[in-house]
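Data availability (excerpt). The following record was deposited with the supplementary files.
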Amino acid sequence: MELLKVSSKSNAKSVAGAMAAVVREQKGVELQAIGAGAVNQAVKAIAIARGYVAPNGIDLVAMPAFSEVQIDSEERTAIKFLVENR
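Predicted structure:
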């Protein structure tokens, strides 16, 4: 499953477009966000992507989970969203 990293400065429409393209080809994508701003952009992107793929009969669902990631040899907690076709 492809991983898309989302930051607080990510453009939600751009992330949504990338997510929609991956879902059309691979049926699922994982978003990773660290921090409140990044989680906000990820959630907006999921909502926008649902509108992008709905005309193709794809009903996206997102399952949030925690994930531990290493950044500069420091362990951080990220929120990951597994986004798949229902």
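Summary of structural features: The domain at 2-85 is CATH 3.30.110.20 (Translation Initiation Factor IF3).
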